[in-house]
Design goal:
heterodimer; A: about 190 residues; alpha/beta; seven-stranded mixed β-sheet; about 15% strand; globular; B: about 475 residues
């Protein structure tokens, strides 16, 4: 997993609530057996008319040339529904390194963190302030200090991140390396609970 | 202070708690399927580590499989490759696979319980959000992503932050025509699609105690639809009776020993939950959803909310968008609205009791000519039982099509899809946009309400047919 320390970037706003992982990556794209290439199908059915890349839906933020950046900003309960990690892979592959919302579904949050995509939970009012910014506005996210700032106004909020996950993100460590290092303790646990 | 059922099981499975971090949680049983496992197998291969405890993982093919002609090669090339890769991965890594053609094949959350793999007090995970189903046995069972599947492969553990606990007490007798699917749709409508996010839910009360195991599974199955990490029910005689004698259930002395342990699995009288909700069973009607998340549900004879009456702007926008997708009007009633499809299946409602209920209702009746009806049993074992009890004849006479086991039109990964713009009353768990096919419009309901619509061709209050 790649390390993530700071992001300063413009953002893509999708001010919808309850965005489920079926929208982020529809089931028909789950037939792949690798983690690569999901970005082109991110929000596929919100992005294209009749599944045709020749017919982009112009009112959808990803198709709006005014918006770009490494940060996706969305309404509350982002990533609900299916546990498909393909949703996090699609977001990362498209080029987003952070998702900002006032509320994340639990499984999505874990999946994002396990792929080095930072879920940033902000208050509902801060989220609305971000949505009110113009398309040129930038956000600064700092993992070390756990803060997110609207650069134009200087308003900022801190977000939650446990120190274990913070260390993982800052250094690009993943949970599997950690668990592999604990196999002796796990074997001991198995013997004791048998 | 007493302990909750959740805490009792959780505490027994924590290998280590990382300071200001998650816990290393030991997993007793790991279920896998073809869609969320290939990248995890690849992951451990790239790291050069073997499966740590291959005997504790069980595989089946369900999401992607066709539900007709399962003896023939899968026609869709990508689906075929994914299923073949599961076969190769399982054989290479020593994982037991109940694949196509195996008498134990079926939807992963149907086969676990019916084979006795799922047992009280366990921790169970699967790369599928409806793993919460297994909580009906008093297990901590939850869905995980593929990176976490890889963690279990590598260490038989996952890293998990302990969720908060919620208890939902349901007391009293259900109205006629109201079944467990209505209970869970009612709860989700009441607390919303995110109302239990961050919580692990225990369902309790006299109504829950009176339910069969299969009815309890339907409730736990949809816990994820209100955002819960999982749902669970304390095991009791109903549970023990169900597990006893199943292929993987403990036998002889081992059974007696386990039974003694299982009888301790309940929330202590003085246990404190972070949140409690009380529901009177008598107020639960037959339910149906009108929107594009499972929280947008109403009594089948009720009315869609009037947009102007919704004060929360975000919610109003949500419902407006949902109604536009669904082609429905603010304030309208769904009763009498024509539907084109009825899907009876999925890990929520494809077990033998569901199909018995449907058969009892449709016996001697015929489906409406305007509706296509598909019944997809949850497993080969369910299909066998359907045949043994002669339910297949009842369905055939009613004009219902019976298919072979799989996830099918619940998520439309195979060819079982609902065409754009058409309505499907579905016993599955999600009504998201495009879930049953691009542009498909899903109305979630119980098997009884779905069967009633199959007969009349329109949304029907089941209480008028029984």
């Amino acid at each position: 997993m790649k390390a993530l320390q700071k992001i300063q970037s413009r953002f893509v706003p999708i001010p919808m609530e309850n965005i489920d992982t079926d929208q982020i990556i529809p089931a028909r794209f789950l037939k792949a057996t690798t983690r690569d290439g999901f970005g082109k199908n991110l929000f596929r059915d919100w992005r294209y008319e009749n599944d045709s890349e020749a017919n982009p839906k112009t009112d959808f933020a990803l198709n709006n040339p005014l918006y770009s950046g490494e940060i996706l900003v969305a309404g509350k309960n982002f990533g609900c529904g299916s546990s498909r990690e393909h949703a996090a892979w699609a977001i990362l592959d498209y080029g987003f390194n952070a998702v900002v919302s006032s509320f994340f579904a639990d499984i999505f949050k874990n999946n994002a963190l396990n792929n080095g995509v930072l879920p940033v939970t902000v208050s509902e009012s801060f989220l609305q302030k971000i949505f009110e910014q113009g398309n040129e506005a930038t956000l600064s996210i700092d993992v070390e200090s756990q803060t997110i700032r609207i650069d134009a106004t200087g308003e900022q909020e801190s977000f939650e991140l446990n120190s274990y996950k913070k260390t993982c993100l800052l250094n690009g460590y993943d949970d599997i390396d950690f668990l592999l290092s604990r196999r002796e303790a796990i074997t001991k646990f198995e013997k004791e609970s048998a | 202070m007493g302990k909750t059922l959740f805490d009792k099981i959780w505490d027994k499975h924590v290998v280590e708690k990382i300071p200001d971090g998650p816990s290393v949680l030991y997993i007793d049983k790991h279920l896998i399927h073809e869609v969320t496992s290939p990248q995890a197998f690849k992951g451990i291969e790239q790291r050069g580590v073997p499966l740590f405890r291959p005997k504790q993982t069980i595989a089946t093919a369900d999401h992607n499989v066709p539900t007709i002609n399962q003896h023939l090669p899968i026609r869709d090339e990508l689906s075929r490759m994914q299923v073949e890769q599961l076969i190769n991965n399982c054989s290479k890594h020593g994982v037991e696979l109940y694949g196509l053609g195996h008498p134990y094949q079926g939807i992963v959350h149907v086969i676990g319980p019916e084979l006795g793999i799922t047992q009280p007090g366990m921790t169970m995970v699967c790369g599928d959000s409806h793993t919460s189903t297994h909580g009906a046995f008093g297990t901590i069972a939850f869905g995980i992503g593929t990176s976490e599947v890889e963690m279990v492969f590598a260490s038989q553990c996952v890293l998990q932050t302990k969720p908060k606990t919620m208890r939902i007490n349901i007391e009293g007798e259900l109205q006629k025509g109201v079944v467990s699917k209505d209970i869970i749709l009612y709860i989700i409508a009441k607390i919303s699609a995110s109302g239990a996010t961050g919580f692990f839910v225990e369902y309790a009360g006299s109504t829950i105690r009176s339910l069969s195991m299969e009815a309890r599974m339907t409730i736990c199955n949809m816990s994820i639809e209100m955002g819960a990490r999982g749902g669970m029910i304390a095991p009791d005689e109903t549970t023990f009776e169900y597990v006893k004698g199943r292929p993987f259930a403990p036998k002889g002395n081992a059974w007696d020993k386990k039974l003694t342990e299982w009888k301790e699995l309940y929330s202590d009288a003085d246990a404190i939950f972070d949140s409690e909700i009380n529901i009177n069973a008598a107020e639960i009607p037959p339910m149906i959803t009108y929107g594009t998340n499972p929280g947008l549900g109403i009594a089948v004879n009720g009315h869609i909310p009037v947009l102007e009456h919704i004060s929360d702007e975000g919610e109003k926008k949500n419902i407006e968008k949902a109604l536009q997708y669904m082609g429905l009007n603010s304030g309208a009633s769904l009763i009498g609205m024509p539907v084109q499809h009825v899907f009876i299946g999925s890990c929520t409602n494809s077990r033998i009791e569901d199909l018995r209920e449907v058969a009892a209702l449709v016996k001697g009746r015929k489906k409406s000519d305007a509706v296509k009806v598909m019944i997809v049993p949850g497993s080969q074992q369910v299909a066998k039982q359907v045949h043994a009890e002669g339910l297949d004849r009842i369905f055939a006479e009613a004009g219902f099509q019976i298919r072979q086991a799989g996830c099918s039109a619940c998520l439309g990964m195979n060819e079982d899809k609902v065409p754009a713009g058409e309505y499907c009353i579905s016993t599955s768990n999600r009504n998201f946009e495009g879930r049953q096919g691009a542009g498909a419009r899903t109305l979630l309901a119980s098997p009884l309400t779905a069967a009633a619509a199959a007969i009349t061709g329109v949304v029907t209050d089941i209480r008028e047919l029984i």
